[in-house]
Amino acid sequence: MTNLLLATTENTDNQNSQYTPLNDPEIAGVVAHINEEHLDELLGFLSAFTSLSTAELDLVDAQITDIYAEGIAIQTCPKGVENQSTAAQNSSLYNQTFFIAFAAPISQLDDLQAQYILLKQRADKKLGKKTIKLTKQVFEVQNSYRISKNMLRLELSMPSLSDVKGAKSSTSVPTNEAGYAYLFDLEHNAMTNALITDSTDDNKANGNKASDYKTNGSDKENVRPARPHCYYTLRKAWQADDGIRAWVDVFLHGDTPGGNWAAALQAGETVVTKREFPEKVEHLRDGQAVLIVDETSMPTAARLLELWNNPTPPLVICMTQDAGDQSYFDTVKMRSGLDCDTENNGNNYFTVLPIVTNQPNSGAELATLIDRELGDYLTNNPLQINKVWGALEANTAKALRPLLKDRLELSRTDVVVKVYWRQD
User: Fold this and answer.
1) For residues 160 and 168, is the Cβ–Cβ distance under 8 A?
2) C-alpha to C-alpha distances, 18 to 1, 13, 31, 75, nearest whole angstrom
């Protein structure tokens, strides 16, 4: 992996001239998204592919300045300064630019995702971290039912693999991870159902040509979902006698591709996943944490609580459109940390601060509401919050991060508020 320090500000343009710019109007948006949402990954690239030490990386933030056909340019900036141009710093540690090369050059922006994932996989492997897997998994639907007013639980199964001697081997499905996400192939079920319909029509044809009843190309386009893929968190997985069993909880809200897909699934159907992504929750292992969730991220928080590895129980801020979904955490039992008095405190020793909005949970106004509710709670229940994890709608997450950093006086790496969905 090539990593080249672009030595000085005055020479940067000359150094950059050896790389091929991508002339795409969407590049600025992609750069902004990565800088806002993926700071930890950029710091990981610097840790894995440059000579910067852990101590040095603890003092800086990072941001992509350019994307080229051959790779990305990452610049260090003073920690906590969102706009590095406003930072008047004399230290040689700041405002250095590093070039991180792709495994293979890209010719268009559409190729960036594949090369970025390869970069992340290589960096995570070098750093000993869990990473994205481009793995196909096939589950069978066993059952589905509501567990709160608008939350549907899919019960899935996967048979255990056996070796040549017939002994059951381990599966790649994680049973002890919180926030492990799968990219589900919604198109798989839409096309499978279309083929079943074709077969049924053929059987009813009564001598007519099968081709008269086959779904043609334009008809197949009509059955494709508006979104071909959708991420859902693995709520829970465990090893049963006959293989792996798993839960996936899906929030049903209006006419959405994911909700329609989940609601239509029947026992015996298969669902296919194409990519796996581990959630980043390592920073929650110590200190007083607050978890901020809506209906899309409640499954992640529920599993995180069940696997809680911190002696201090968290505060959970739970936002729902409907009061009927606040019951989601009622049956969640937290695994207490080693220093917790479980005999006296019980297993369900965490506090939920409910917020019912009666509308879709998105937008900057919601961020203000969350910040205000948290402030009111801390006034009446003094806590020193050390860590934050949340997952919300994109505009809400973007607006909430600086509010929490200011209120709690925490660094950007301690305030992890992810984007789980976008308001279309």
Assistant:
1) yes
2) 17, 9, 20, 18
